[in-house]
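User: Sequence recovery, please. Input:
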């Protein structure tokens, strides 16, 4: 006589945790399914475009930093060059003032007309290699002091070569007795230099 065993539909199935009912197992499976679906949805909703945008912004920031560094280096080089030129100008002015002081001590010759002085200043520009012709200027005269008065010649000259401009000032004060530098200003422009210089000279009034 064979024995037929029957299984209770509410009894735990094979492989299930001990003490859990099929209903609990169903609820657990449902929770797992919901968790998996939520994880998949979260991955689909991840704003990858924001990540890409952030990487692009980071790359742009790095490029801007490199460009700014290069610009600062270039600006520093220009500043150093201008400082060297300013030092040369200061040394030149100091030396010219020393020469002028020596001339005023008794070896200078007064009395040359202003026209002859300007002619020598123009010749000095040619010797220095300045390309543009030096135009004549209207000299200004100070009030007489005793039997002498100061005459000033103001020039605003542009040239591609700064050494040529400085050489012109040096030659002019060397070749014209009593001529000295009263004021000077040098300014760099796009493709040339702008020299604004005022020469002065004492002349006898009689």
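Assistant: Recovered sequence (206 residues):
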């Amino acid at each position: 006589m064979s024995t037929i065993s029957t299984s209770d539909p509410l009894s735990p199935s094979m492989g299930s945790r001990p003490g859990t009912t099929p209903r609990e197992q169903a609820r657990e499976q449902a929770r797992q399914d919901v968790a998996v679906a939520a994880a998949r949805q979260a991955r689909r909703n991840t704003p990858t475009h924001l990540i890409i945008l952030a990487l692009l912004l980071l790359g742009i920031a790095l490029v801007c930093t490199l460009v700014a560094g290069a610009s600062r280096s270039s600006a520093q080089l220009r500043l150093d060059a201008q400082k060297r030129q300013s030092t040369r100008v200061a040394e030149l002015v100091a030396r010219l003032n020393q020469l002028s002081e020596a001339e005023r001590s008794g070896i200078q010759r007064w009395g040359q007309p202003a026209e002859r002085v300007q002619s020598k200043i123009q010749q000095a520009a040619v010797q220095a290699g300045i390309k543009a012709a030096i135009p004549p200027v209207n000299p200004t005269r100070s009030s007489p002091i005793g039997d002498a008065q100061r005459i000033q010649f103001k020039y605003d000259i542009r040239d591609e070569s700064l050494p040529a401009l400085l050489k012109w000032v040096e030659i002019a004060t060397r070749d014209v007795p009593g001529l000295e530098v009263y004021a000077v200003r040098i300014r760099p422009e796009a493709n040339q230099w702008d020299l604004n210089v005022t020469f002065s000279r004492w002349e006898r009034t009689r």
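The longest helix spans residues 48-107.
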